[in-house]
Amino acid sequence: MGKLQAFEIAFDKKKEVYSPGDSITGTVTIKVSQPLQCKAIKVNCNGFCGITSKVNDTSWTMEEQYFNSTLSVADKGTLKQGEHTFPFKFLIPATAPTSFEGNYGKIIYRVRAFFDTPRFAKDYSTEKPFYLLSLLNLNEVPDIWGTCSSAVTQQFTYMLVKTGTVVLKAHTDMKGYTAGQIIQVTANIHNQSGKTTGNMAASLMQRVTYETKKPTHDVRTIAEVEGGVVKAGKEVEWKEQIIVPPLPQSSLAGCELIKIEYFVKVNLKSPEVQLTLPVHIGNVSLDKKLHPSKKAAPPSTEDTPASTSTPDTSASASTPTLPPRPAPKPAPRPAPRSRMSSHNSPSAPSAEYHPGAEGGTPMNDDFPNKRQSQLVSPNAFSYAPGLFFPQSQLPSGPAAVPSGPPFSGSAGATAPYPVNGASSMPTPLIVPPNYSTSAYPQEAPPSYDESCNT
């Protein structure tokens, strides 16, 4: 190099990877063997994107610049013999995209230094690249949650005459991955033909689009796994895994000339059937804790008892809070004694009949009917329209719960149904007959009129 023995750029802490918004600092070192005149020493930091239509060509057909800053570290003068160091500092814009190198274009960041000498003398220059990484957080990508699925039906002809159909369905376990993660691929192949298919395969593909006047698409296979065949008339489910290697991220935010996409291609070798499953490659993996959970639906109260816990029996009977709710008007049809036989039902409601059941005192566990699962209030049965019973007439204390024979269809009833619609007449407190001591079914119980008259 003659008089100039060293001309180098060094970054502080030997750092080479930066993020948008960072400050890049370093020094320019110049070592001369004898005094050397200079017009100026300048340091430049720039970032740009260049694309072309030829592979590995640096004669860019289109360029896009992100920033370009120049700093003068020394003015006109003479450098003495020895080593000289000049510091520099630049600020990287927050909108700069991630570094990238492809077959038809690049996103480049570099620091260059220029040593300008007097006229007719030799100028010197040097440069040092650095890399910019703008992290892609997959959790911020729209519509990233869930699985990615697709299906295709392909008809084909074989043996020049016969026609067959193949149905191919496939899905991935997620839509976004980072380097080192595993893509779970599940495919379902239904061979509805009389010919055995070729091998099935799944590939992780990268497609880079360079936005020239006529866009250039560079598609290449990153990783591929292969499976077996599907025999004629058979349906097979195939599961495979693909490990994601270190790759450029899907999004080059801030770059308008280069677009990167990834997808999983699932295909059959013969007949040629394939489908694609788009995926994202990022730097920050998906966090299940950030998954948008569905809002819990409010519990339905239509089919739920008023009390789902076992309340205190004495407290619920002795402290009524609301008056009894009238039930719909019944239509009783008491049958005459002369028409009743040993096969007729008793006049009281059956054990499975619970009109207007509401929450309250729990049912007795000794009841043989296992279908009784609701909590039933003693005040919920046998009220007729027009009859009102003040709360003062309700029994209090433990007597509110019948402790006699098993449930006979009107447990806790306070009055029978009215006769001939006489709803305005005062009705005394009448307890239904005790059927546990009757000879039923050998002997029919007394009719409704007789039980009221007695």
TrEMBL record:
Q: Where is the composition biased (Low complexity)?
A: 296-320, 395-416
Q: Which InterPro entries match?
A: Arrestin-like_C, Arrestin-like_N, Arrestin_C-like, Arrestin_domain-protein, Ig_E-set
Q: Which Pfam families match?
A: Arrestin_C (PF02752), Arrestin_N (PF00339)
Organism superkingdom: Eukaryota
In this protein, which residues make up the domain named Arrestin C-terminal-like? 162-286
Q: Name one GO molecular function term.
A: ubiquitin-like ligase-substrate adaptor activity
Q: Pro residues bias located where?
A: 321-335
GO BP terms in the entry: nervous system development; protein transport
Which residue ranges are recorded for the region named Disordered?
289-372, 390-454
Kindly list the GO CC terms recorded for this protein. Answer: cytoplasm
Cross-referenced PANTHER family: ARRESTIN DOMAIN CONTAINING PROTEIN, ARRESTIN DOMAIN-CONTAINING PROTEIN 1
What the record says about family reads: Belongs to the arrestin family.
Q: What is this protein called?
A: Arrestin C-terminal-like domain-containing protein
